[in-house]
Design goal:
Elements: E1 4-11, H1 19-35, E2 40-42, H2 56-59, H3 69-81, E3 84-92, E4 98-106, E5 109-115, E6 137-139, E7 142-148, H4 155-163, E8 168-173, H5 183-192, E9 195-200, E10 202-205, E11 208-211, E12 214-217, E13 223-227, E14 232-239, H6 240-244, H7 253-256, H8 274-278, E15 291-298, H9 305-321, E16 326-328, H10 340-343, H11 350-362, E17 365-374, E18 377-385, E19 391-395, E20 415-418, E21 421-425, H12 434-442, E22 447-452, E23 459-462, E24 478-483, H13 484-492, E25 495-500, E26 502-503, E27 508-509, E28 512-515, E29 527-529, E30 534-541, H14 553-556, H15 558-561
Parallel strand pairs: 1-2, 2-3, 7-8, 8-9, 15-16, 16-17, 21-22, 22-25
Antiparallel strand pairs: 1-14, 3-4, 4-5, 6-7, 9-12, 10-11, 12-13, 15-30, 17-18, 18-19, 20-21, 23-24, 25-28, 26-27, 28-29
Helix pairs in contact: 1-3, 9-11, 12-13
Length: about 575
Protein backbone atom coordinates (compact mmCIF):
# COMPACT_ATOMS: atom_id res chain seq x y z
CA UNK A 1 0.00 0.00 0.00
CA UNK A 2 1.45 3.31 -1.06
CA UNK A 3 0.51 6.27 -3.17
CA UNK A 4 -0.95 9.75 -2.97
CA UNK A 5 -4.33 10.38 -1.36
CA UNK A 6 -6.47 13.49 -1.01
CA UNK A 7 -7.30 14.40 2.60
CA UNK A 8 -9.35 17.06 4.36
CA UNK A 9 -9.48 18.76 7.73
CA UNK A 10 -12.80 20.19 8.91
CA UNK A 11 -12.81 23.32 11.05
CA UNK A 12 -16.00 23.96 12.95
CA UNK A 13 -17.52 25.84 15.88
CA UNK A 14 -20.02 23.59 17.67
CA UNK A 15 -22.79 24.99 19.86
CA UNK A 16 -23.28 23.58 23.34
CA UNK A 17 -26.63 21.87 24.01
CA UNK A 18 -27.37 21.69 20.25
CA UNK A 19 -26.04 18.25 19.38
CA UNK A 20 -28.37 17.64 16.44
CA UNK A 21 -27.38 20.95 14.85
CA UNK A 22 -23.69 20.15 15.34
CA UNK A 23 -23.94 16.66 13.86
CA UNK A 24 -25.94 17.88 10.88
CA UNK A 25 -23.42 20.64 10.16
CA UNK A 26 -20.46 18.26 10.50
CA UNK A 27 -22.11 15.84 8.09
CA UNK A 28 -22.62 18.70 5.65
CA UNK A 29 -18.95 19.72 5.84
CA UNK A 30 -17.80 16.10 5.51
CA UNK A 31 -20.07 15.70 2.48
CA UNK A 32 -18.38 18.72 0.88
CA UNK A 33 -14.95 17.26 1.54
CA UNK A 34 -15.90 13.82 0.22
CA UNK A 35 -17.48 15.31 -2.88
CA UNK A 36 -14.19 17.14 -3.50
CA UNK A 37 -12.40 13.78 -3.50
CA UNK A 38 -11.09 13.52 0.08
CA UNK A 39 -10.50 9.89 1.11
CA UNK A 40 -9.65 10.80 4.73
CA UNK A 41 -11.63 13.53 6.54
CA UNK A 42 -10.84 14.71 10.07
CA UNK A 43 -13.25 16.67 12.31
CA UNK A 44 -12.58 18.47 15.63
CA UNK A 45 -12.42 17.21 19.19
CA UNK A 46 -15.88 17.04 20.81
CA UNK A 47 -17.29 18.46 17.58
CA UNK A 48 -20.69 16.84 18.10
CA UNK A 49 -21.34 18.56 21.43
CA UNK A 50 -18.96 21.37 22.30
CA UNK A 51 -16.27 21.13 24.94
CA UNK A 52 -16.57 23.23 28.12
CA UNK A 53 -18.81 21.02 30.24
CA UNK A 54 -19.20 21.65 33.96
CA UNK A 55 -19.52 18.04 35.09
CA UNK A 56 -20.87 14.56 34.31
CA UNK A 57 -24.46 15.59 34.92
CA UNK A 58 -24.34 18.38 32.35
CA UNK A 59 -22.80 16.30 29.56
CA UNK A 60 -24.82 13.17 30.37
CA UNK A 61 -27.66 13.83 27.86
CA UNK A 62 -25.12 14.02 25.01
CA UNK A 63 -22.80 11.05 25.55
CA UNK A 64 -23.17 7.98 23.29
CA UNK A 65 -21.88 4.50 22.94
CA UNK A 66 -19.58 3.65 20.04
CA UNK A 67 -20.97 2.37 17.72
CA UNK A 68 -24.17 4.31 18.17
CA UNK A 69 -26.61 6.63 16.40
CA UNK A 70 -24.04 9.34 15.60
CA UNK A 71 -21.36 7.01 14.30
CA UNK A 72 -24.02 5.25 12.21
CA UNK A 73 -24.77 8.53 10.41
CA UNK A 74 -21.11 9.14 9.60
CA UNK A 75 -20.69 5.51 8.55
CA UNK A 76 -23.47 5.96 5.99
CA UNK A 77 -21.62 8.95 4.53
CA UNK A 78 -18.32 7.04 4.51
CA UNK A 79 -20.01 4.13 2.74
CA UNK A 80 -21.59 6.46 0.16
CA UNK A 81 -18.25 8.07 -0.73
CA UNK A 82 -15.84 5.20 0.04
CA UNK A 83 -13.91 7.40 2.48
CA UNK A 84 -12.70 7.47 6.09
CA UNK A 85 -13.88 9.99 8.68
CA UNK A 86 -12.51 10.85 12.14
CA UNK A 87 -15.20 12.11 14.52
CA UNK A 88 -14.63 13.63 17.98
CA UNK A 89 -17.37 12.96 20.55
CA UNK A 90 -18.08 12.15 24.21
CA UNK A 91 -18.36 8.38 24.67
CA UNK A 92 -20.01 6.33 27.39
CA UNK A 93 -18.95 2.71 27.84
CA UNK A 94 -20.86 -0.29 29.16
CA UNK A 95 -19.95 0.64 32.76
CA UNK A 96 -21.22 4.20 32.48
CA UNK A 97 -17.71 5.70 32.28
CA UNK A 98 -17.36 8.77 30.07
CA UNK A 99 -14.43 9.41 27.72
CA UNK A 100 -13.35 12.14 25.33
CA UNK A 101 -13.12 9.96 22.21
CA UNK A 102 -12.04 10.01 18.59
CA UNK A 103 -13.51 7.35 16.31
CA UNK A 104 -12.24 6.34 12.86
CA UNK A 105 -15.13 5.35 10.61
CA UNK A 106 -14.80 3.74 7.19
CA UNK A 107 -17.07 2.38 4.44
CA UNK A 108 -17.65 -0.77 6.51
CA UNK A 109 -18.29 1.03 9.80
CA UNK A 110 -16.06 1.52 12.87
CA UNK A 111 -12.36 0.94 12.16
CA UNK A 112 -11.13 1.92 15.62
CA UNK A 113 -11.17 4.59 18.31
CA UNK A 114 -8.92 6.44 20.72
CA UNK A 115 -9.81 7.76 24.14
CA UNK A 116 -7.93 10.89 25.18
CA UNK A 117 -5.20 9.70 27.52
CA UNK A 118 -3.99 13.06 28.86
CA UNK A 119 -6.99 15.07 30.12
CA UNK A 120 -6.77 18.84 29.95
CA UNK A 121 -7.64 20.88 33.03
CA UNK A 122 -11.45 20.71 32.66
CA UNK A 123 -11.92 17.11 31.58
CA UNK A 124 -11.46 15.29 34.91
CA UNK A 125 -14.74 17.01 35.89
CA UNK A 126 -16.52 14.53 33.62
CA UNK A 127 -14.19 12.18 31.72
CA UNK A 128 -11.82 9.38 32.65
CA UNK A 129 -8.31 9.20 31.22
CA UNK A 130 -8.26 7.00 28.12
CA UNK A 131 -7.28 3.35 28.29
CA UNK A 132 -6.76 2.56 24.58
CA UNK A 133 -3.12 3.36 24.05
CA UNK A 134 -0.95 3.87 20.98
CA UNK A 135 -3.02 2.14 18.32
CA UNK A 136 -2.39 2.29 14.56
CA UNK A 137 -5.16 1.33 12.14
CA UNK A 138 -4.40 -0.14 8.72
CA UNK A 139 -6.62 1.30 5.96
CA UNK A 140 -6.47 1.63 2.15
CA UNK A 141 -5.47 5.29 2.63
CA UNK A 142 -2.57 4.55 4.98
CA UNK A 143 -1.77 3.54 8.52
CA UNK A 144 -3.72 5.94 10.69
CA UNK A 145 -3.25 6.91 14.35
CA UNK A 146 -5.50 9.14 16.45
CA UNK A 147 -4.56 11.72 19.08
CA UNK A 148 -6.73 14.23 20.93
CA UNK A 149 -5.54 17.72 21.82
CA UNK A 150 -3.40 17.52 25.00
CA UNK A 151 -2.09 14.09 23.97
CA UNK A 152 0.21 15.77 21.45
CA UNK A 153 2.15 17.58 24.18
CA UNK A 154 3.67 14.27 25.20
CA UNK A 155 6.48 13.06 22.97
CA UNK A 156 5.89 9.43 23.88
CA UNK A 157 2.40 9.16 22.38
CA UNK A 158 3.18 10.24 18.83
CA UNK A 159 6.53 8.42 18.95
CA UNK A 160 4.89 5.12 19.84
CA UNK A 161 2.38 5.53 17.03
CA UNK A 162 5.13 6.27 14.54
CA UNK A 163 7.07 3.26 15.80
CA UNK A 164 3.89 1.31 15.15
CA UNK A 165 4.05 2.37 11.52
CA UNK A 166 1.69 5.36 11.43
CA UNK A 167 1.81 7.27 8.17
CA UNK A 168 -0.69 9.84 9.41
CA UNK A 169 -1.53 11.10 12.87
CA UNK A 170 -5.03 12.56 12.89
CA UNK A 171 -4.92 15.08 15.71
CA UNK A 172 -8.30 16.49 16.71
CA UNK A 173 -8.31 19.37 19.14
CA UNK A 174 -9.89 22.28 20.94
CA UNK A 175 -6.58 24.17 21.03
CA UNK A 176 -6.26 27.55 22.67
CA UNK A 177 -3.82 30.14 23.98
CA UNK A 178 -1.56 30.63 20.95
CA UNK A 179 -1.34 31.19 17.20
CA UNK A 180 -1.95 28.06 15.20
CA UNK A 181 -0.74 25.87 13.49
CA UNK A 182 0.80 25.24 16.89
CA UNK A 183 4.52 24.50 17.17
CA UNK A 184 3.75 21.25 19.02
CA UNK A 185 1.74 19.98 16.05
CA UNK A 186 4.60 20.75 13.68
CA UNK A 187 7.26 19.13 15.87
CA UNK A 188 5.29 15.88 16.21
CA UNK A 189 5.19 15.56 12.41
CA UNK A 190 8.80 16.68 11.99
CA UNK A 191 10.47 14.47 14.59
CA UNK A 192 8.54 11.36 13.51
CA UNK A 193 8.73 11.86 9.76
CA UNK A 194 4.96 11.44 9.35
CA UNK A 195 1.94 13.53 8.37
CA UNK A 196 -0.22 15.29 10.92
CA UNK A 197 -3.75 16.19 9.88
CA UNK A 198 -4.95 18.73 12.40
CA UNK A 199 -8.64 19.51 12.87
CA UNK A 200 -9.09 22.25 15.43
CA UNK A 201 -12.25 24.06 16.45
CA UNK A 202 -12.50 27.81 16.52
CA UNK A 203 -14.80 30.32 18.24
CA UNK A 204 -15.70 31.32 21.78
CA UNK A 205 -17.27 29.02 24.36
CA UNK A 206 -17.80 29.84 28.03
CA UNK A 207 -15.14 32.60 27.86
CA UNK A 208 -12.60 30.26 26.20
CA UNK A 209 -11.25 31.41 22.82
CA UNK A 210 -10.25 28.54 20.56
CA UNK A 211 -7.58 29.10 17.93
CA UNK A 212 -8.56 27.49 14.63
CA UNK A 213 -5.61 27.05 12.31
CA UNK A 214 -6.60 23.58 11.12
CA UNK A 215 -3.93 22.26 8.79
CA UNK A 216 -2.03 19.45 7.12
CA UNK A 217 1.65 19.14 8.08
CA UNK A 218 4.11 17.18 5.94
CA UNK A 219 6.79 14.83 7.32
CA UNK A 220 9.42 17.55 6.93
CA UNK A 221 7.44 19.99 9.08
CA UNK A 222 6.08 22.06 6.18
CA UNK A 223 2.52 23.27 6.72
CA UNK A 224 1.08 22.43 3.30
CA UNK A 225 -2.50 23.60 3.86
CA UNK A 226 -4.10 25.76 6.56
CA UNK A 227 -7.41 27.43 7.44
CA UNK A 228 -6.98 30.28 9.91
CA UNK A 229 -10.53 30.94 11.14
CA UNK A 230 -14.17 30.12 10.47
CA UNK A 231 -16.14 27.00 9.61
CA UNK A 232 -14.87 25.24 6.53
CA UNK A 233 -12.79 22.51 4.99
CA UNK A 234 -9.24 22.48 3.72
CA UNK A 235 -7.98 19.99 1.19
CA UNK A 236 -4.49 18.62 0.65
CA UNK A 237 -2.64 15.50 -0.41
CA UNK A 238 -0.52 13.01 1.46
CA UNK A 239 2.20 10.84 -0.08
CA UNK A 240 2.57 7.62 1.91
CA UNK A 241 6.03 7.00 0.46
CA UNK A 242 7.23 10.29 1.98
CA UNK A 243 6.02 9.20 5.42
CA UNK A 244 7.51 5.72 5.11
CA UNK A 245 10.95 7.11 4.35
CA UNK A 246 11.08 8.09 8.06
CA UNK A 247 13.64 10.83 7.61
CA UNK A 248 14.34 13.79 9.87
CA UNK A 249 16.66 16.36 8.30
CA UNK A 250 17.75 13.55 5.96
CA UNK A 251 18.61 11.14 8.77
CA UNK A 252 17.09 7.68 9.31
CA UNK A 253 16.23 8.47 12.91
CA UNK A 254 14.24 5.34 13.68
CA UNK A 255 17.21 3.15 12.78
CA UNK A 256 19.47 5.42 14.87
CA UNK A 257 17.44 5.23 18.09
CA UNK A 258 19.16 3.81 21.20
CA UNK A 259 16.39 1.99 23.12
CA UNK A 260 18.93 0.54 25.54
CA UNK A 261 19.48 4.11 26.81
CA UNK A 262 15.77 4.82 27.35
CA UNK A 263 14.58 2.56 30.23
CA UNK A 264 13.95 5.62 32.42
CA UNK A 265 11.12 6.58 30.07
CA UNK A 266 9.05 3.96 31.87
CA UNK A 267 9.53 5.74 35.21
CA UNK A 268 7.74 8.74 36.66
CA UNK A 269 10.20 10.64 38.82
CA UNK A 270 7.88 13.65 39.16
CA UNK A 271 4.93 11.66 40.54
CA UNK A 272 6.26 12.32 44.05
CA UNK A 273 7.24 15.56 45.75
CA UNK A 274 10.27 16.22 43.53
CA UNK A 275 12.31 18.11 46.10
CA UNK A 276 12.29 15.17 48.48
CA UNK A 277 12.52 12.60 45.67
CA UNK A 278 15.77 14.00 44.32
CA UNK A 279 17.25 14.30 47.80
CA UNK A 280 16.26 10.80 48.93
CA UNK A 281 18.89 9.07 51.11
CA UNK A 282 20.96 12.28 50.78
CA UNK A 283 21.99 11.11 47.31
CA UNK A 284 22.33 13.74 44.55
CA UNK A 285 19.94 16.31 46.02
CA UNK A 286 18.87 19.08 43.69
CA UNK A 287 21.10 22.16 43.80
CA UNK A 288 19.11 25.04 45.34
CA UNK A 289 19.06 26.89 42.02
CA UNK A 290 18.99 30.62 41.42
CA UNK A 291 18.51 33.30 38.81
CA UNK A 292 21.38 33.44 36.30
CA UNK A 293 22.15 34.66 32.83
CA UNK A 294 23.02 32.05 30.21
CA UNK A 295 24.43 32.69 26.73
CA UNK A 296 24.77 30.76 23.50
CA UNK A 297 27.56 31.67 21.08
CA UNK A 298 26.96 31.20 17.37
CA UNK A 299 29.84 30.98 14.91
CA UNK A 300 31.44 28.77 12.24
CA UNK A 301 34.43 26.80 13.56
CA UNK A 302 37.43 26.69 11.24
CA UNK A 303 40.03 23.97 10.70
CA UNK A 304 42.47 25.46 13.19
CA UNK A 305 42.20 24.65 16.90
CA UNK A 306 44.17 27.71 17.99
CA UNK A 307 41.97 30.06 15.97
CA UNK A 308 38.81 28.40 17.30
CA UNK A 309 40.04 28.80 20.88
CA UNK A 310 40.62 32.51 20.20
CA UNK A 311 37.02 32.81 18.98
CA UNK A 312 35.80 30.96 22.08
CA UNK A 313 37.79 33.30 24.33
CA UNK A 314 36.44 36.40 22.58
CA UNK A 315 32.83 35.24 22.84
CA UNK A 316 33.30 34.14 26.46
CA UNK A 317 34.56 37.65 27.24
CA UNK A 318 31.52 39.18 25.50
CA UNK A 319 29.16 36.84 27.36
CA UNK A 320 30.79 37.76 30.67
CA UNK A 321 30.25 41.44 29.84
CA UNK A 322 26.54 40.64 29.39
CA UNK A 323 26.49 39.12 32.86
CA UNK A 324 26.41 35.48 31.75
CA UNK A 325 27.53 32.76 34.14
CA UNK A 326 27.47 30.04 31.48
CA UNK A 327 28.06 30.16 27.73
CA UNK A 328 27.45 27.33 25.26
CA UNK A 329 29.43 27.00 22.02
CA UNK A 330 28.61 24.93 18.92
CA UNK A 331 29.33 21.27 18.24
CA UNK A 332 33.01 20.64 17.33
CA UNK A 333 33.66 24.31 18.12
CA UNK A 334 37.21 23.55 19.30
CA UNK A 335 38.36 21.14 16.58
CA UNK A 336 36.36 22.20 13.52
CA UNK A 337 33.97 20.34 11.23
CA UNK A 338 36.12 19.42 8.24
CA UNK A 339 38.30 16.55 9.51
CA UNK A 340 37.42 15.64 13.12
CA UNK A 341 39.56 12.49 13.05
CA UNK A 342 42.63 14.56 12.23
CA UNK A 343 41.96 17.40 14.69
CA UNK A 344 40.71 15.28 17.62
CA UNK A 345 42.06 16.18 21.07
CA UNK A 346 42.58 14.18 24.26
CA UNK A 347 40.61 15.08 27.41
CA UNK A 348 42.39 16.35 29.42
CA UNK A 349 44.89 17.84 27.03
CA UNK A 350 46.19 21.13 25.63
CA UNK A 351 42.81 22.20 24.22
CA UNK A 352 40.92 21.59 27.45
CA UNK A 353 43.74 23.26 29.38
CA UNK A 354 43.00 26.37 27.31
CA UNK A 355 39.29 26.07 28.08
CA UNK A 356 40.09 25.78 31.78
CA UNK A 357 42.17 28.93 31.55
CA UNK A 358 39.33 30.84 29.84
CA UNK A 359 36.73 29.60 32.35
CA UNK A 360 38.99 30.51 35.25
CA UNK A 361 39.89 33.95 33.90
CA UNK A 362 36.27 35.00 33.41
CA UNK A 363 34.76 33.03 36.28
CA UNK A 364 32.29 31.46 33.87
CA UNK A 365 31.10 27.97 32.89
CA UNK A 366 31.89 26.93 29.32
CA UNK A 367 30.24 24.20 27.26
CA UNK A 368 32.26 23.39 24.13
CA UNK A 369 32.06 20.69 21.50
CA UNK A 370 35.17 18.91 20.23
CA UNK A 371 36.33 15.72 18.59
CA UNK A 372 37.82 13.65 21.41
CA UNK A 373 40.64 11.13 21.02
CA UNK A 374 40.62 8.43 23.69
CA UNK A 375 43.51 6.17 22.71
CA UNK A 376 42.52 4.67 19.36
CA UNK A 377 38.83 5.59 19.79
CA UNK A 378 37.26 8.84 18.64
CA UNK A 379 34.12 10.48 20.03
CA UNK A 380 32.04 13.53 19.19
CA UNK A 381 32.12 15.05 22.67
CA UNK A 382 31.22 18.10 24.68
CA UNK A 383 32.94 19.43 27.80
CA UNK A 384 31.33 21.40 30.57
CA UNK A 385 34.24 23.33 32.09
CA UNK A 386 33.72 24.93 35.50
CA UNK A 387 35.48 28.09 36.69
CA UNK A 388 37.47 25.95 39.14
CA UNK A 389 38.78 23.84 36.25
CA UNK A 390 36.65 20.73 36.75
CA UNK A 391 35.71 19.11 33.43
CA UNK A 392 32.60 16.99 32.82
CA UNK A 393 32.46 15.13 29.51
CA UNK A 394 29.52 13.89 27.44
CA UNK A 395 29.99 11.69 24.38
CA UNK A 396 27.31 11.99 21.71
CA UNK A 397 24.99 8.98 21.89
CA UNK A 398 23.04 9.42 18.62
CA UNK A 399 25.39 9.65 15.65
CA UNK A 400 24.31 11.00 12.28
CA UNK A 401 25.17 8.94 9.22
CA UNK A 402 28.29 10.91 8.25
CA UNK A 403 29.73 10.73 11.79
CA UNK A 404 29.77 6.94 11.82
CA UNK A 405 32.86 6.95 9.59
CA UNK A 406 34.99 8.41 12.39
CA UNK A 407 33.18 8.51 15.73
CA UNK A 408 32.13 5.90 18.28
CA UNK A 409 28.85 6.64 20.03
CA UNK A 410 28.80 7.28 23.75
CA UNK A 411 26.92 4.90 25.99
CA UNK A 412 25.46 7.09 28.73
CA UNK A 413 24.13 10.48 29.78
CA UNK A 414 25.95 13.29 31.60
CA UNK A 415 24.21 15.38 34.26
CA UNK A 416 26.12 17.98 36.30
CA UNK A 417 24.96 19.91 39.37
CA UNK A 418 26.07 23.55 39.46
CA UNK A 419 24.96 26.71 41.27
CA UNK A 420 23.04 27.58 38.08
CA UNK A 421 21.01 24.38 38.46
CA UNK A 422 21.09 20.77 37.34
CA UNK A 423 22.51 20.68 33.79
CA UNK A 424 22.18 17.88 31.24
CA UNK A 425 24.20 17.70 28.03
CA UNK A 426 23.16 16.77 24.49
CA UNK A 427 25.02 17.27 21.21
CA UNK A 428 23.32 18.30 17.98
CA UNK A 429 21.59 15.27 16.45
CA UNK A 430 20.86 13.90 19.95
CA UNK A 431 18.21 16.59 20.31
CA UNK A 432 16.38 15.28 17.23
CA UNK A 433 15.39 12.32 19.42
CA UNK A 434 12.61 13.26 21.84
CA UNK A 435 13.65 10.39 24.08
CA UNK A 436 16.99 12.06 24.86
CA UNK A 437 15.61 15.29 26.26
CA UNK A 438 12.97 13.37 28.18
CA UNK A 439 15.53 11.20 29.99
CA UNK A 440 17.39 14.33 31.12
CA UNK A 441 14.13 15.92 32.31
CA UNK A 442 13.29 12.78 34.28
CA UNK A 443 16.69 13.07 35.94
CA UNK A 444 15.65 16.48 37.23
CA UNK A 445 17.57 18.72 34.85
CA UNK A 446 16.71 22.41 34.98
CA UNK A 447 18.82 23.28 31.95
CA UNK A 448 19.81 21.25 28.89
CA UNK A 449 22.84 22.54 27.00
CA UNK A 450 23.16 21.51 23.37
CA UNK A 451 26.20 22.34 21.24
CA UNK A 452 24.98 21.68 17.68
CA UNK A 453 25.98 21.53 14.03
CA UNK A 454 22.54 20.95 12.51
CA UNK A 455 21.84 21.60 8.86
CA UNK A 456 18.46 22.18 7.27
CA UNK A 457 15.15 23.65 8.28
CA UNK A 458 13.89 23.33 11.85
CA UNK A 459 12.09 26.67 12.20
CA UNK A 460 9.35 28.49 10.33
CA UNK A 461 7.48 31.78 10.50
CA UNK A 462 3.81 32.69 10.99
CA UNK A 463 2.09 35.45 9.05
CA UNK A 464 -0.29 36.20 11.93
CA UNK A 465 -3.84 35.15 12.74
CA UNK A 466 -7.24 36.84 12.51
CA UNK A 467 -8.49 34.87 15.51
CA UNK A 468 -8.88 37.37 18.36
CA UNK A 469 -7.10 36.14 21.49
CA UNK A 470 -6.81 37.45 25.06
CA UNK A 471 -4.60 40.51 25.08
CA UNK A 472 -1.47 38.80 26.42
CA UNK A 473 -1.37 36.24 23.57
CA UNK A 474 0.35 37.61 20.44
CA UNK A 475 -1.50 37.26 17.15
CA UNK A 476 0.81 39.14 14.78
CA UNK A 477 3.53 37.87 12.47
CA UNK A 478 6.39 35.93 14.04
CA UNK A 479 9.58 35.05 12.13
CA UNK A 480 10.33 32.17 14.55
CA UNK A 481 6.83 30.91 15.34
CA UNK A 482 7.99 27.28 15.19
CA UNK A 483 11.48 26.50 16.42
CA UNK A 484 11.88 22.79 17.04
CA UNK A 485 14.32 23.28 19.91
CA UNK A 486 11.98 25.73 21.67
CA UNK A 487 9.44 22.89 21.63
CA UNK A 488 12.11 20.58 23.12
CA UNK A 489 12.43 23.01 26.03
CA UNK A 490 8.72 23.43 26.62
CA UNK A 491 7.73 19.77 26.39
CA UNK A 492 10.27 18.94 29.12
CA UNK A 493 9.77 22.12 31.19
CA UNK A 494 13.49 22.89 31.00
CA UNK A 495 15.58 25.79 29.84
CA UNK A 496 17.45 24.76 26.70
CA UNK A 497 20.61 26.48 25.49
CA UNK A 498 21.03 25.53 21.83
CA UNK A 499 24.25 26.75 20.16
CA UNK A 500 24.29 25.95 16.44
CA UNK A 501 26.90 26.50 13.74
CA UNK A 502 26.21 29.42 11.39
CA UNK A 503 27.43 28.77 7.85
CA UNK A 504 24.61 29.20 5.31
CA UNK A 505 26.79 28.26 2.34
CA UNK A 506 27.29 24.80 3.88
CA UNK A 507 23.68 24.52 5.05
CA UNK A 508 24.04 25.50 8.73
CA UNK A 509 21.31 28.07 9.51
CA UNK A 510 22.37 29.10 13.01
CA UNK A 511 19.16 30.08 14.84
CA UNK A 512 20.86 29.45 18.17
CA UNK A 513 18.85 30.34 21.24
CA UNK A 514 18.18 30.07 24.94
CA UNK A 515 14.58 28.85 25.28
CA UNK A 516 12.31 28.88 28.32
CA UNK A 517 10.49 26.05 30.10
CA UNK A 518 6.92 27.14 29.27
CA UNK A 519 5.99 27.51 25.61
CA UNK A 520 2.63 29.08 26.54
CA UNK A 521 4.18 31.93 28.50
CA UNK A 522 4.06 35.28 26.70
CA UNK A 523 6.20 37.19 26.25
CA UNK A 524 8.53 34.25 25.85
CA UNK A 525 11.54 33.90 28.14
CA UNK A 526 14.11 33.44 25.39
CA UNK A 527 16.78 34.98 23.20
CA UNK A 528 17.64 33.97 19.62
CA UNK A 529 20.63 34.75 17.40
CA UNK A 530 18.79 35.19 14.11
CA UNK A 531 21.70 35.90 11.78
CA UNK A 532 25.47 35.78 11.68
CA UNK A 533 28.07 35.32 14.37
CA UNK A 534 27.01 36.49 17.80
CA UNK A 535 25.55 35.85 21.22
CA UNK A 536 22.08 35.42 22.67
CA UNK A 537 21.70 35.83 26.42
CA UNK A 538 18.63 35.13 28.53
CA UNK A 539 17.64 35.03 32.17
CA UNK A 540 17.34 31.53 33.63
CA UNK A 541 15.49 31.01 36.92
CA UNK A 542 16.01 27.57 38.50
CA UNK A 543 15.21 28.50 42.10
CA UNK A 544 12.25 27.36 44.25
CA UNK A 545 13.43 24.91 46.88
CA UNK A 546 11.80 26.99 49.60
CA UNK A 547 8.52 25.08 49.31
CA UNK A 548 7.80 21.36 49.47
CA UNK A 549 5.97 21.38 46.15
CA UNK A 550 7.80 23.69 43.74
CA UNK A 551 5.85 26.43 42.01
CA UNK A 552 8.59 27.21 39.45
CA UNK A 553 7.59 25.26 36.33
CA UNK A 554 11.19 24.20 35.68
CA UNK A 555 11.16 22.43 39.05
CA UNK A 556 7.49 21.36 38.99
CA UNK A 557 7.58 19.98 35.40
CA UNK A 558 3.86 19.65 34.68
CA UNK A 559 4.36 18.04 31.28
CA UNK A 560 6.66 15.43 32.82
CA UNK A 561 4.47 14.61 35.81
CA UNK A 562 1.37 14.09 33.62
CA UNK A 563 2.96 11.38 31.46
CA UNK A 564 1.47 7.84 31.24
CA UNK A 565 4.62 5.69 31.51
CA UNK A 566 2.73 2.44 32.08
CA UNK A 567 1.93 2.51 28.34
CA UNK A 568 5.45 3.31 27.08
CA UNK A 569 6.98 -0.18 26.93
CA UNK A 570 7.34 0.02 23.15
CA UNK A 571 9.86 2.85 23.48
CA UNK A 572 12.51 0.54 24.91
CA UNK A 573 12.06 -2.36 22.50
CA UNK A 574 14.70 -2.98 19.84
CA UNK A 575 14.19 -1.13 16.56
CA UNK A 576 11.67 -2.76 14.24
CA UNK A 577 13.09 -4.44 11.16
CA UNK A 578 11.21 -2.17 8.75
CA UNK A 579 13.37 0.80 9.85
Amino acid sequence: MSGIHKVAAVQFEPTMFEKERNVARLLELCEQAAAAGARLIVTPEMGTTGYCWYDRAEVAPFVEKIPGPTTDRFAALARKHDCYIVVGMPEVDEDGIYFNAAVLIGPDGIVGRHRKTHPYISEPKWAAAGDLHNQVFETPVGRIALLICMDVHFVETARLMALGGADVICHISNWLAERTPAPYWISRAFENGCYVIESNRWGLERTVQFSGGSCVIAPDGQVIAVLDKGDGILLSEIDLDAARARRVLGEAVFAQRRPELYPELLTDTFSWNPRDFFGLYEHEPWPPGKTSRVSVAQFAPVDDVVQNLRQIEAQARAAKEEGAELVVFPELAVTGLADPAKSAQPIPGPATDSLRSIAGEFGIYLVCGLAERDGDVLHNSACLVAPDGKISVYRKTHLAADERSWATAGDGWTVVDTPIGRIGLLIGHDASFPEAGRVLALRGCDLIVCPAAIKGRFSSSHAGTEVIQPVFIPTGADPHHWHHFRVRAGENNVFLAFANVIDPERGYPGLSGVFGPDTFEFPRREAIVANGTGLATALVDTGNLDSVYPTNVVRRKDLVSMRMPHSYRGLVKAAASNY
